[in-house]
Amino acid sequence: MNQSPWQPISPEKRARPVREPLSRERIVDAAMRILLDQGYEAVSMRKVAQALETGPASLYAHVANKKELDQLLVDRAAEGIVMPAPDPERWQEQLKDALRSTLKVMRAYPGVARAAIGQVPLVELALASTEGMLAILKAGRVPDQAAAWAVDMVSLYVTAVAFEESVQGAWEWTPDDVEGFVAELKTFFQALPADRYPLIVALAGPLTAGASSDDRFEFGLQVIVGGLAAMVPAE
């Protein structure tokens, strides 16, 4: 018998919205939103589960633990890294470009640097970045052991720079605030006892220069890449 059009529909028969199945992709999406909106410290399996309107236990069928989630966040950010095709004639500038691209990505995803610190990249895109940097180093004939250690060192350098910037960004300083702090720091150095700290006093200007630009980062690239170039055996 058909149901009368005036008869209320029972709760069991009301249409229920179809919930999108839980997946690793959705988990990373939610975790990245939390990271960008609230910072790295806010990212937890419990909070991600709440954002997806599920329980933490359901996440573990897709992501083993918070450590793996950190790896996946780094991997998501790594999608934006531009890795040049190795050119033996330009390997030094290519390595610098790859590191500049990595810093740009980490700046676009504040908090990812914190997720990356202390991690060995074991997920696909992060591994591809490691492979790409090794290819550039080997195109430049950097010895195997030096290339192996260098790819870790340069990643740590970029990550440390990005992490420091994210910490400073949390202070919500304006450019005027930064300028004022640097001026005060320079004055502090200049006022130190010259008999105990003669070089700090003498170099107060250089020590506080480039605080709000990429000059310091570029200096680091120059030192690192120049050191690696010095290790290339003579032909």
Which oligomeric form is depicted?
Answer: single chain
Number of discrete helical segments = 12
The geometry reads as: flat
Number of strands: 0
Mean pLDDT equals 89
Rg from C-alpha positions? 25 Å
Low-confidence stretches: none
Biggest pleated-sheet summary:
none
The helix fraction, in percent, is 55-70%
Distance between the termini: 93 Å
Going by helix content, strand content and strand pairing, the class is: mainly alpha
Description of the structure:
The protein is an all-alpha fold and 235 residues long. The protein has helices at residues 24-38, 45-51, 56-59, 66-77, 91-108, 112-116, 124-139, 144-170, 175-190, 198-202, 204-207, 215-230.
List the helices and strands and how they pair.
Layout: H1 24-38, H2 45-51, H3 56-59, H4 66-77, H5 91-108, H6 112-116, H7 124-139, H8 144-170, H9 175-190, H10 198-202, H11 204-207, H12 215-230
Helix pairs in contact: 1-2, 5-7, 5-8, 5-12, 7-8, 8-12
